[in-house]
Design brief:
Layout: E1 9-12, H1 17-26, E2 32-36, H2 39-46, E3 54-58, E4 62-66, E5 76-81, H3 86-97, E6 103-104, H4 106-116, H5 124-130, E7 140-141, H6 143-153, E8 161-166, E9 175-180, H7 190-194, E10 198-201, H8 203-206
Parallel strand pairs: 6-7
Antiparallel strand pairs: 1-2, 1-5, 2-3, 3-4, 5-10, 8-9
Helix pairs in contact: 2-3, 3-6
Length: about 230
């Protein structure tokens, strides 16, 4: 907890039946994502109780505030956006806190499955046109789309589509790289791990890690029994 900062994305390897489905669909370790917003901000914006410092979208309870104990015992990864100023972090946090109480969009899971595993096989550029992009109800979300929308609201990239355009204002023949947002409903938890714009934070290495201080138990391996 001491290593977390508001705006950090916490990825979770869940073990529920839905988590198994999401990991299979996305071919990833991570099945869930939550945004760390800090206890003080949550209390101010959403009436959080003590210790509730994450916002997540839960299948049964919808968008809610939870404490760190909700994720204890699961493999975790911290993905940190780089370069956000205080105003952008506040707007990011306000975006997710403002959606607390909304419902979970189960239809988005179905559409995501259609996109990732089309049957019959469909070329990738055509798949997006076949999607209904979730329920279409702005008061519904899944964990990754909730967080993706928040980052897009402050123009922070996750996995944008890059294309080159002519830039005749600079010079004849010049081109510039332009980014296009992906629709928020197409994001999965793994995308924050894959994104080049998020730093992977390892708490053990942040706390003056010294490998010389580790205690090892020596073992003897009998190769004949191996």
């Amino acid at each position: 907890m001491a290593s977390l900062q508001p705006g950090d994305v916490l990825l979770v390897e869940g073990s529920s039946r839905l988590s198994t489905v999401i990991k299979y669909l996305t071919q990833s370790t991570w099945s869930h994502a939550a945004l760390y917003v800090g206890a003080t901000t949550c209390q101010k914006l959403g009436g959080a109780t003590r210790g509730e410092c994450f916002v997540e979208a839960d299948l049964a309870e919808g968008v809610r505030m939870v404490g760190f104990e909700e994720f204890e015992g699961h493999p975790l990864r911290i993905c940190r956006p780089v370069g956000l100023n205080n105003d952008e972090v506040e707007r990011l946090v306000a975006s997710v806190c403002g959606r607390v109480g909304q419902h979970y969009d189960l239809r988005n899971i179905i559409d995501l499955a259609r996109y990732l595993l089309p049957l019959p096989p469909v070329p990738v550029p055509w798949r997006r046109k076949m999607l209904s992009l979730g329920s279409g109800d702005p008061t519904r979300a899944i964990c990754s789309t909730l967080i993706a929308q928040a980052f897009q609201s402050v123009n922070y990239p996750i996995l944008p589509i890059a294309e080159w355009q002519d830039d005749t204002q600079r010079c004849h023949g010049c081109r510039r790289r332009v980014l296009q947002r992906r629709h928020h409903s197409l994001f999965a938890p793994r995308d924050f791990d894959l994104s080049p714009y998020f730093e992977i934070v390892k708490p053990v290495l942040m706390n003056d890690f010294d490998h010389r201080q580790l205690t090892w138990r020596e073992t003897t391996i009998n190769l004949s029994e191996a």
